Amino acid sequence: MSDIFHALPGIEVPVGTISKSLRKMWSDTAAAGGPAPASDDAKATQVNFVLHLGFNTTPEDGVAQFQTAVAFSKRYPSRVVVLCPLNEDAGVTEMRAKVYGECHLGKSKNDKRCVEFVVLSYPRSTRQFLESQVSICLSTDLPLYYWAHRFSASSKLADYHYLLTSAKRVLIDSAIAPDDALTYPWPHPEALRDLVHARLLPIRQSLGQFLSRYPMDVLCAGLENVTLAHDGAHAAEARVLLKWVEERIGQCGQNRAKFSLAALPGGSAGTFDLKFSYAGGKKSFAWKGDLARASAMFEADFGGGRTTLPAAASLLSPEAALSEAMFF
């Protein structure tokens, strides 16, 4: 895990001088002619954001998630604290810190947005001091959002009680989280948000807009089976999407339809195939999405004639999924 700390950008500084080191980082950047905040307005922070890189994170993956946080902060200026825990056998006894900053132009040359990062690497022996150090790094009177990435066990993550109870939203990705992550008794389960659900937003909107053309009793009457076939790489997205469909039409009226997932054969990368089957075969609905081509096709007949409609199909970018999970 120490390799992640080294892989992430930033200037290593003593832990006790983080605030002072951030100010010096900007002044040194400005003195060298680099992009730096010209005023406090440029550093106007909107959210506190803690990115926790769990034990299952590789250095390459850690850098990728760091860049996702950078991209997110271009739209929502943030004070980002990145946590890099160390395994007990790492042979390290002290907490280490890095500071990092970037500035970006907004809609005009005068609209400069600058974001600040603090990276903390720590062994378990310093774990008792972590919450205090994180609270010092964050901006006061701003909401806190906590993203736990590739944590190895829900019970171990539960040890971060301060973050789990203080955060307005706790973000996880059920595609890579432990199996019990969505059912674990977190301190504030109402704050938990799944990034899989968030990145499905364009697909959920497209399906919802098409199906909303028809009365609910027409959609539900005689519905027997709902099947969603998917490729292997998007099993989590298929699971979450099918649950979303079931929550909306699965138990309406007297209907007790069966909902099931199915695996598509190899060579179907990025493909979804959703079908509704009705008693008597007089009604039908099918939606096929192809993420590789960013396209989809609706085919439906609810008794008024066959309808076909091409549509777009895509997942939100990682930074857009973060904002969707945080704020909506």
Characteristic terms for this protein:
Glutaredoxin; eight-stranded mixed beta sheet; 14 strands; elongated; 328 residues; six-stranded mixed beta sheet; 29% strand; alpha/beta
Describe this structure in words.
- By secondary structure, the chain is α/β, with parallel strands linked by helices.
- It has two domains: 2-194, no CATH class; 201-312, Glutaredoxin, CATH 3.40.30.
- 31% of the residues lie in helices and 29% in strands.
- The protein has eleven helices and 14 strands.
- An eight-stranded mixed β-sheet has the order 1-4-5-3-2-6-7-8, sandwiched between helices. A six-stranded mixed β-sheet has the order 10-9-11-12-13-14, covered by helices on one side.
- Strand 2 (47-53), helix 3 and strand 3 (78-85) form a beta-alpha-beta unit.
- Helix 3 packs across helix 11 (318-327).
- The protein starts with a helix and ends with a helix.
- 34% of the residues are buried.
- The mean pLDDT is 91.
